[in-house]
Design brief:
It is built from ten helices and 22 strands. It is an alpha/beta fold. The chain has a seven-stranded parallel sheet. It has a three-stranded antiparallel sheet with strand order 16-20-19. The protein has a two-stranded antiparallel sheet with strand order 2-5. Strand 3 (50-53) and strand 4 (56-59) form a beta hairpin. The two termini are 31 Å apart.
């Protein structure tokens, strides 16, 4: 757990639960899994949570409740955005209901913070968060209040943001509809690593399609109050680190455009370890100088074009690969690839919704 983090869209991470299991392609190069099996493998909160393979450490399905971390948010007096269970999944099938209830109790009792949850187990999250007695269970799990649960808290909890991770259209269609049916003050999508095109405005559902950004009227929650359920925030980003897979530039562009059509906040987190040639050329000509192999900064004396890709690769010493659509991706590090999408940094953020 860290009060402070390099994750661009949050202020702190909180890991009362650690451990997970691999469920989809987005898990392949999970940074938390890699850390748990390498640098943190002997840490009490991570030890024994991975198994060694030829491809590196892999989650083994074991999970751990770190009680020494459970009440840390109460010690943070300044309001923060807190990423919950950054090194696991709160709604993994191995996590007991009682652990989830403990985490929700801490969230409810620290209303000055905004807590951001992500899961790949959207169905379990929907089932758990839709329990008609959940608010009362949270209240009875905490002894620091007088009065009734609804005198102390509103529902859904105003400071709990629930989201799903989705790396491509099939996973988006599997997880986002369940999220839309889940009580939440803020619903959001983390499309990272973005491995394919996702169109959140046209998700196959049953015999038809749904528009997750426009939303729809739905009866939801313990009191069955009608509300328009929609996605309130979209975060997107490419993969970084060893074995990172390239992100097609059209994937973050489509999400950007769909968010603009519906006034949905859009946050472009990073390109990751690969950068499209057109984006690199634009960055060279409009951004800071490129660093050559010998460490010298360099700015082109003439406008560059797509045909200069091989020239640039040799100049800066970075490998590149051609895509089947005729484009080219350069292998860079996360910092050099940057966060600019078509020359613009996207930092959209939802407003915290206070209910009641």
């Amino acid at each position: 757990m860290a009060d402070g983090t390099k994750i661009e869209w949050t202020d702190a991470t909180w890991n009362p639960v650690t451990g997970c299991s691999v469920v989809s392609p987005g898990c392949t190069n999970c940074y938390a899994m890699r850390l748990a099996g390498t640098r943190l493998r002997n840490h009490p909160s991570r030890a024994g949570l991975t198994r060694d393979t030829k491809a590196g450490p892999v989650w083994n399905g074991k999970v751990r409740l770190n009680r020494q971390e459970l009440h840390k948010p109460a010690q943070w007096k300044r309001p923060r955005n807190i990423f919950v269970v950054a090194h696991g999944d709160l709604f993994a099938k191995e996590v007991p209901d009682d652990w989830i209830l403990d985490v929700l109790t801490v969230i409810a009792s620290n209303p000055r913070h905004q807590f951001q949850v992500l899961t790949k187990r959207a169905e379990r999250m929907r089932e758990f968060m839709s329990r008609p007695d959940l608010l009362e269970d949270i209240y009875s799990n905490w002894s620091g209040f007088s009065g009734t649960a609804r005198e102390v808290w509103s529902w859904p909890l105003h400071n709990l943001w629930l989201g799903v991770s989705a790396e491509d259209q099939p996973r988006a269609e599997e997880r986002i509809p369940a999220l839309l049916d889940t009580p939440a003050a803020i619903r959001w999508i983390s499309a990272e690593p973005l491995l394919g095109i996702i169109d959140p405005r046209r998700l196959r559902y049953g015999a038809g399609h749904i528009d997750a950004l426009e939303g729809y009227v739905h009866n939801i929650g313990p009191d069955r109050t009608a509300e328009r359920t929609r996605i309130n925030w979209v975060v997107a980003g490419g993969e970084s680190g060893r074995g990172a897979r390239p992100m097609h530039p059209d994937a973050p562009r489509l999400l950007r455009d769909r968010c603009a059509e519906t006034d949905t906040p859009y946050f472009f987190k990073q390109w990751g370890s690969w950068l499209d040639a057109d984006q690199l050329l634009d960055r060279i000509q409009t951004g800071p100088p490129l660093i050559l192999r010998d460490g010298r900064p360099w700015t082109p004396a003439r406008p560059l074009n797509f045909n200069d890709a091989a020239f640039l690769a040799n100049l800066v010493g970075h490998p590149f690969e051609h895509r089947s659509d005729g484009g080219t991706n350069f292998r860079l590090d996360k910092t050099r690839a940057g966060r600019l999408l078509d020359g613009v940094e996207h930092n959209g953020y939802p407003e915290a919704r206070h209910v009641g």
